[in-house]
Structures are given as structure tokens and as C-alpha cells.
Amino acid sequence: MRGMGNMQGMMKKMQKMQKEMMEAQEALNAEQFIGAAGGGMVQVTVTGQREVVEVNLDASVVDPEDIEMLQDLIVVATNEALKKVDEKTNSTMGKFTQGLNLPF
């Protein structure tokens, strides 16, 4: 019967870890990340759920003769913001999955 006590203790630890993971994921999802390009003249804000929630453009980058430059700046700023989400996700959730080789 000794093994049952160990199993119960392990199950409690797993449930605690699962709860902590859910709380960490909820906090991450609520966080906002800003990517910038063009010296900050283009800013894109995304949530931890990787949803774009805001795009800010300085009037000086809106040139009807050079739409491609503006498009490129938006792409760069968006990718920077998404990279920040990935980095934060890896650092936050990685502590729960270290050594387990699990996707999150």
C-alpha cells in the first residue's frame, strides 16, 4: 500500500502544477506586447494570444507614393511583437515543461 501514497502525492503535485500552468497561461494571454519599426513610427500591439489589437502609425510614414514601405514596416513591427510573445511564452511556460519535451 505504500506505493498508493506515493501515487496520491504525485497526483496532487501534478494537479498543483496544472493549476499553476493555467494561471501562468491566463496571465500571459492578458499581457500585451508591442513591436516597432521605422524608429517607432510604426507600432503593432498584440496580446499573449497572438491577436493584433492595435496598429499605430506616425503620419510621416503614410506616403501614398510609397505604400510598399509602410506595408514592410507593419510586417516588421508585427513580427517583432509576435517574437516577444514567443520569447515570453517560452520563458514563462518552459519552467513547467523542462525535460518533458512537450509542446504548449
UniProtKB/TrEMBL annotation:
What role does it play?
Binds to DNA and alters its conformation. May be involved in regulation of gene expression, nucleoid organization and DNA protection.
User: Which stretches are annotated as coiled coil?
Assistant: none
Question: Do you know which Gene3D superfamilies this protein is assigned to?
Answer: Nucleoid-associated protein YbaB-like domain (3.30.1310.10)
Biased composition, class Low complexity, residue ranges: 1-12
Q: Where in the cell is it found?
A: Cytoplasm, Nucleoid
Q: Does the keyword Cytoplasm apply?
A: yes
Listed name of the protein:
Nucleoid-associated protein LYSBPC_37070
UniProt region (Disordered), positions on chain: 1-22
Per its UniProt record, what InterPro entries does this chain match?
A: YbaB-like_sf, YbaB/EbfC
- Family recorded in the similarity comment: Belongs to the YbaB/EbfC family.
Which UniProt keywords are present, listed alphabetically?
Cytoplasm, DNA-binding
Kindly state the subunit structure of this protein.
Homodimer.
